[in-house]
Amino acid sequence: MKRRSLPVAAALAATAALLLTACGGGDDKSSDNDKIAGAGQDKEKPKKSAEPAGAAEDKPDGVDVSLPKGMNLDLVFDWDKPKAKNEAAAMDDAANYLRAMYRGVGKRTANDAAVTSYSTGDGRRYAEVQIKEWVKGGWTATGLRRHYDATTRSTTNGNSVEVAFCSDSSKFYAEEVKTGKVLKTKPSLVDFSYFKIIMVKLPTSDSLWQASKVFVEEEAKKCQ
Prior knowledge:
Elements: H1 5-14, E1 73-78, H2 85-107, H3 113-117, H4 121-137, E2 139-154, E3 160-176, E4 182-183, E5 192-201, E6 209-218
Parallel strand pairs: 1-2
Antiparallel strand pairs: 2-3, 3-4, 3-5, 5-6
Helix pairs in contact: 1-4, 2-4
């Protein structure tokens, strides 16, 4: 079994309606920013974290997105922020959405305040199914996952932003919670994915954005 397939395969099958396997062309080359998928997604108010205060960078928008103590995982976001203020903010919170998801994996719950703050609608359901599959399999995440080659495009009103990027999971592994055994395989194309996350601005906040939809192209050769 491949490294990324261990906790994710069942989740991908269960969330087929939330995922897009791109075949080239189509939306990938679209320049019409008003046709971003999920642009009309409902927004939900964030919940403040009840955790003790940590480092300032761990609590954007007052929500704790730090990984649980003892979780040996490094999420790297190797990208430059766009000049547009709304796109830069949406990109930051797309990263926080991923941090929140793996925080949920480490804490063994899909109901953590970070998850509920940085996601809504299909984005929430995607995160919940992913987290539950890791928990069901008895795994946590370890190693390094790199995100890079990010691009953004926004709707005319600026309230929805598509954040697209590549991910490299060649050094990212599942670890058995009970035994501590790290499940490794040889690097392959399955380690590369291309994501499109539709971020929507929370009307009651000047800065917080939520993931409303997640589209994933697995085995993305363009990310190698």
